[in-house]
Design brief:
homotetramer, 340 residues, elongated, alpha/beta
Chain lengths: 340, 340, 340, 340
Amino acid sequence: MFIVLKSNPDPARLASLKDWLASKDIEIHTSEGATTTVLGLVGDTSIIDIDLIAALDIVEDVKRIQEPFKNANRKFHPDDTVIKVGNTQIGGGNLTIMAGPCSVESEEQLVTIAKAVKASGATMLRGGAFKPRSSPYAFQGLGEEGLRLLSLAKKETGLPVVSEMMEASQLPLFDDVDVIQVGARNMQNFNLLSVLGNQDKPVMIKRGLSSTYEEWLMSAEYVMASGNKQVILCERGIRTFETYTRNTLDLGAVPVLKKLSHLPVIIDPSHASGKWDLVPSGALAAVAAGTDGLLIEVHNDPEKALCDGPQSLKMDTFDELAHKLLALHGFMQELEGGKK
Amino acid sequence: MFIVLKSNPDPARLASLKDWLASKDIEIHTSEGATTTVLGLVGDTSIIDIDLIAALDIVEDVKRIQEPFKNANRKFHPDDTVIKVGNTQIGGGNLTIMAGPCSVESEEQLVTIAKAVKASGATMLRGGAFKPRSSPYAFQGLGEEGLRLLSLAKKETGLPVVSEMMEASQLPLFDDVDVIQVGARNMQNFNLLSVLGNQDKPVMIKRGLSSTYEEWLMSAEYVMASGNKQVILCERGIRTFETYTRNTLDLGAVPVLKKLSHLPVIIDPSHASGKWDLVPSGALAAVAAGTDGLLIEVHNDPEKALCDGPQSLKMDTFDELAHKLLALHGFMQELEGGKK
Amino acid sequence: MFIVLKSNPDPARLASLKDWLASKDIEIHTSEGATTTVLGLVGDTSIIDIDLIAALDIVEDVKRIQEPFKNANRKFHPDDTVIKVGNTQIGGGNLTIMAGPCSVESEEQLVTIAKAVKASGATMLRGGAFKPRSSPYAFQGLGEEGLRLLSLAKKETGLPVVSEMMEASQLPLFDDVDVIQVGARNMQNFNLLSVLGNQDKPVMIKRGLSSTYEEWLMSAEYVMASGNKQVILCERGIRTFETYTRNTLDLGAVPVLKKLSHLPVIIDPSHASGKWDLVPSGALAAVAAGTDGLLIEVHNDPEKALCDGPQSLKMDTFDELAHKLLALHGFMQELEGGKK
Amino acid sequence: MFIVLKSNPDPARLASLKDWLASKDIEIHTSEGATTTVLGLVGDTSIIDIDLIAALDIVEDVKRIQEPFKNANRKFHPDDTVIKVGNTQIGGGNLTIMAGPCSVESEEQLVTIAKAVKASGATMLRGGAFKPRSSPYAFQGLGEEGLRLLSLAKKETGLPVVSEMMEASQLPLFDDVDVIQVGARNMQNFNLLSVLGNQDKPVMIKRGLSSTYEEWLMSAEYVMASGNKQVILCERGIRTFETYTRNTLDLGAVPVLKKLSHLPVIIDPSHASGKWDLVPSGALAAVAAGTDGLLIEVHNDPEKALCDGPQSLKMDTFDELAHKLLALHGFMQELEGGKK
């Protein structure tokens, strides 16, 4: 960490800052330039509150060198984290395909889709029981009944289940869920994160719409600091000025997070674009970029849902895509020399 | 709402869509162009799920005309909402100054600041008991003890209190708090919003870091749809590409929200910039823009907190600013012909 | 195009608006709702100035349905544009690899790199002679001398050359350049675009840092409307809130532009991240996403440039990457059933 | 400037980097921590190319402390720049109101508006002769004829004129223009900036849609480094995720630029919102924030332009606003103790 001082800092205040830093076992290297003096801090600066320093009268700027996350940091945990879920594992060279409907709607819908996606190569079943909706007038999910149906579909297919929890009080209902998802809008719901750190199911944290990599990793850190080291990161598109797509999928997240952290990285190309015809391109690109898995919405027929019309081809489209994804994953592994 | 159809839509699917819309009492006006056909929907389209329509195979695009919020909509509630809090009121031409420390730290700190800001003209006391922090290693607030101290400072000064609630389960602790704040990171914590809609204290909703005006008003709608009409909106800076300031204060929020909604609008210039020397300019501009109030952090001496140094002038700075703000507010009222 | 009227519009003004639209051969479909009246315009609305309509007193909002671009629009030109450059072609299932140094520095540097990238599989040579630099104190490129060296390297290797033009007056100097690049900062330099539309070399337009797909396509339209149909689009990262990478590479641009337009799309993963170790992941992902080519900076040894140190491995790294990219491209073509 | 080294840097490369820095008269302070070594550079680091350093194999990160701009930097030029234009001056406590039509359309239109805005209190006339339009099919301005009409209106009213130049080659036509405007889309057209630095008319640089304060000041630096010190900065709204307004007006630019630089700052509330009813709030807020002036579009009747309808009240609206702005400016000067 570096502290850039204002010119001519009050000597008494500077002295007390230095004493305080020393009391935290931080070593100080001072560089005096013509116009600026800079204190270089050496030691465990992750315990220093950067905003507190920045608020001091004698300080012009503070810049962090060391990352503020530890448990999630590859520097301290060089080996990839691999997470076992049911008969499958996330990370470690696997391509995990989590597929299923956006919302759980009925037993028939869910079991049909679950069987279909399993046959296509999916290794986990996704499905929303509690749905965060920006309008209070929109369908909020089946809730507890949705979780019961997921449990049933899991029994039928053997697929482990991932589903979103919106509030800490829902934890007892998630007994039969294998991976608990934290939604983008809850990425900085710190109470929820802490509660999830105190139980032992794997937690998949979606990136907030405008959250930086560092903030995202700090949310993982919340879970991990409470004891649960099984954290998965899921990129689902960020908010930018572009309005043609709902969000902008940031595939740079894959190599960046792999460099900064040892946690598995999943890509959700469905939420990112908000347009079905853009999903295949994004999913294939994610595999080439080195993702550990994909979270894909398999639409049960929206026509049917609305108007009882003819069955759509959506599951066929997924089937075709899944085969391509698995083939590409195999090819990439060869290309990268079996490294991954 | 307009539905732009793909060219040559499947007639059976189009028919079932039209039937479904008719079943919702929506009238359909069809415009057929050379390359596109568009359905204009007339009726209460706020009940239509726009994402569901957009997912249909025959649909190219959907555009909303009518705002999806009702309770918060000025069109249906032309008069300004005025909220009574203790002896003061928010809205209705008043300039509410909410001032106090970022975090409640001790009785002495809080009472000292509370007395000072009251003397300077503040009409409400702000102070954080539960603090959302992006790092699990940073100070998380005094919690319940912080609320006890706020209650005490309220008794000493008579100032009504605003403080942030982070989770629905904390509600019983907020008995003596006058306005419950929903933080920017919780703006779309829909469970929290619903719970706050089912109690009767006023709720101040901070805008999410990258939330649109519409999403923000929809969060107000969550509270209002549950029964509680006393909602205050607080702009605190949005996330942009600019890194010199922590966030970018969007003062355009004032006229826009006043136009779209009847709810009071408060500006928080402290969080927006993250730099103390930029607060006065932002606060004065907010008053000229027509804000109903300001939320200002009055630092107790950060030097002291850290290093036991000499007392800072921060309360003096606030005092000078508060006088200017009140004078400017008076001037603006004259200028606008007493309209406001 | 839809015009949403304010409630109770002045009848005389509405009538004159309708007359004006009729005079432009626009047919009007009126939908009257309980709270809003909407005019649906049918005809060639690309000639209507949307801002002009929006400024009318009686108008609340205007929404465009039809895209404002024509020459660049796939709807009117269903076949992919394929651009012949020297012995190679851009588009049409090819993977064009444009490689070379950021700036041309010397004959030795350029020729060494040109030979190396050709051997690795590059089909075009890139190199900056005129360099847009945000600081007036930074190196601005060799200018005319740089173009002379590019011409020389082209003669030595047979690789066609792409280089950036910063101002219309430089055109005569670009005689021996095969593709003229318009930089991101000049994407809306409309004078430059018009001049390039009046000559016949292919033009590669980089996306502006915060330009939407539509604005980008409108810049292509500027060139095409002046007569030159040989336009290439190059995504190079957009500006977002994320600061870890210099920009955020938007690979969604590939499927979106392929859908909206028939022009070839190139990805520049080097500028996007600003970090060398993120380039391979981005380049591979771009190929899987379906890009027509890549623009990659091959660093001549920065160590050497600065300090005359030992030769770097940068060209080796490129060589390894180029082989992977070509292999992946071949695999993707098989996977997509030779469609592309 | 700080250079954060990768762990275990190659000693030969580190030595050559240090030698190179020493050759530039940069002093190096080394801080060695447990996991990182950092070089603190002291001296004139504005000549160091930060991207070049960042590209070195042994370097993990580079952070700048010193601002890269000098001529525009308040640290080196503590006094406010005041620019004399005709009988008025920009800066120095004045409130400059630049008003006029977006585009010059006819002699009658321009002279009518010019007389009206002068009567209302405007001190400069604005008007576009060359119009940058995102569509090649939209009206591009009257060009040279527009400049002739501006000259005529200037003669009639005595108001100095500000107008936008889009290309260096247009300079000879701007003989009778008093302040040359560089548009947002040309903010980083470095050739144009250099040419404007080599002539002696004041230059007003609009902020690019997604340009940081630093990039903006570096564009001012381009003009100033070439010799012309008369630069004015104009904020006109930045691009964010919000779509309700065309852009987001960043009034924080006023105090930030006043702190970092000595140049006058103008606010353009018209382009920012793109909605006429939001202009007054933005303009008043800008005055309270401490702006040196405003650039306001006074619409000649858009109804008339289009449909020959009844004359709009737009000039009346401006008249009312201008009086408020001037009254508020007077009040603010008293409030700030005549300081400004």
